[in-house]
Every structure is written in structure tokens, then in C-alpha cells.
Write a structure and sequence with these properties.
heterodimer, A: about 120 residues, mainly beta, seven-stranded mixed β-sheet, four-stranded antiparallel β-sheet, 11 strands, about 0% helix, B: mainly beta, six-stranded mixed β-sheet, 12 strands
Chain lengths: ~120, ~110
């Protein structure tokens, strides 16, 4: 299947700093990417949907000014957690699809963010 | 809204045992149903799917049947292996937006 690479796989940052997570589709065009957040022993919660070249659509309750999503190319989307706080510590996962081909969603391996 | 409820884990089995992980859903319309698997240290992979009532998805010895009357999509395997140890997620997708709603995941450990 297609490959989605997420980087970094883990990151530790200080409170108040910003962290950027990258999600790349390596061998297909990701017209749409999704960002999820997963708490321990909880399901994946969809944060936002981003279509290439347009603004992301955020789910209810997700702060768009805190979780900045950019999807400037067909192979790259980024999630920036701004002014991170300990409560932002979580596991973040991206997935990507090619809507034109109606492909299944391919997932990155996830990023463990710890804010200290 | 859409929701997925799956069996709480963890589930621990011996090799060659029979596996069932229950999954029920609530959705409007006619969703597609999925099982994803996450092996240790890896991302989620699609295990199988079904797109309409009575469809049976199957892959790697795993099966699940889309039961509209009971709103269920239970995952089964006749004989598990140690290599099946992973977290299994039931999910649904409704409409053309490709959004997935996940269950909480079930950790399966298979002992030799």
C-alpha cells in the first residue's frame, strides 16, 4: 500500500513553545489529509480535515489558532501546536487519501508530543 | 452523530485460539465499516472493510460481516497467531467526506 511518513515520531518541548509535525505522502498525491489526536486508552479523535491549497476545516471544539494546519502541496501537510501546554501532550496521527482515485486512508506512524 | 463502540480490552489468547472482537455502531444513512490494525511502533493499517449490508470483509484470516439489522461489524479469526498481537480499531465512514469515526481500540495479545 501507499506510504505516509510522519515526522518526528516523538518530541519533547517546553511550555510556551511551538512544535511542528510533518505528514508526507511518499508515493501518491494526498488531496486530503486528516489530523487525529489520541489520548491514552481513548479512540482517535478527528481534529481537522485539510484539502490541498485551501484552509483546513476544524472539528467542533478544536482551536484553529492553537492547532495550525497547512496543506500547501499534494504531498505535505503540517500541524503546528502553538504555545504548547502540558495538556496538549498527546499522540497525534495523520492520514491521507487521494480523493480523485477514491483511495483508502493511509496513516502515518504518529507523533508522541510531550510538553514539559 | 456517528459513533462506534467496540469491546474493551485487553484481550489475551493462546496461539490457535478463536478470536472475536465485538463492534457496534450508530450512524445515519449507510456507512462503510472498517477494521484497522496497529502493530507495535507502527501506524494504522486497513485490515478489512465492507461497504454495504451483508458484505463480508476478509483479509489475513480475519473476517467481519456488515450486519445492518444489529448495527454490528464483529471481527473474527479462527486461529490467531503470535504475530496478530496488535491494537484493533473498528471504524465507520459516512458520506463522501472520507471522515472516519473510530472505536477506542482493543489490544490483543497472543501468547505462544
Amino acid at each position: 500500500g501507499a506510504v505516509v511518513s510522519q515526522h518526528p515520531s516523538w518530541v519533547i518541548c517546553k511550555s510556551g513553545t511551538s512544535v511542528k509535525i510533518e505528514c508526507r505522502s511518499l508515493d501518491f498525491q494526498a488531496t486530503t489529509m486528516f489530523w487525529y489526536r489520541q489520548f491514552p486508552k481513548q479512540s482517535l479523535m478527528l481534529m481537522a480535515t485539510s484539502n490541498e491549497g485551501s484552509k483546513a476545516t476544524y472539528e467542533q471544539g478544536v482551536e484553529k489558532d492553537k492547532f495550525l494546519i497547512n496543506h500547501a502541496s499534494l504531498t505535505l501537510s503540517t500541524l503546528t501546536v502553538t504555545s504548547a501546554h502540558p495538556e496538549d501532550s498527546s499522540f497525534y496521527i495523520c492520514s491521507a487519501i487521494d480523493r480523485a482515485k477514491g483511495t483508502e486512508a493511509f496513516f502515518g506512524q504518529g507523533t508522541r508530543l510531550t510538553v514539559v | 452523530g456517528n459513533s462506534v463502540t467496540q469491546m474493551e480490552g485487553p484481550v489475551t489468547l493462546s496461539e490457535e485460539a478463536f478470536l472475536t472482537i465485538n463492534c457496534t455502531y450508530t450512524a445515519t444513512g449507510y456507512p462503510s465499516l472498517f477494521w484497522y490494525v496497529q502493530y507495535p511502533g507502527e501506524g494504522l493499517q486497513l485490515l478489512l472493510k465492507a461497504t454495504k449490508a451483508d458484505d463480508k470483509g476478509s483479509n489475513k484470516g480475519f473476517e467481519a460481516t456488515y450486519r445492518k439489522e444489529t448495527t454490528s461489524f464483529h471481527l473474527e479469526k479462527g486461529s490467531v497467531q503470535v504475530s496478530d498481537s496488535a491494537v484493533y480499531f473498528c471504524a465507520l465512514s459516512g458520506g463522501s467526506n472520507y471522515k472516519l469515526t473510530f472505536g477506542k481500540g482493543t489490544l490483543l495479545t497472543v501468547n505462544p
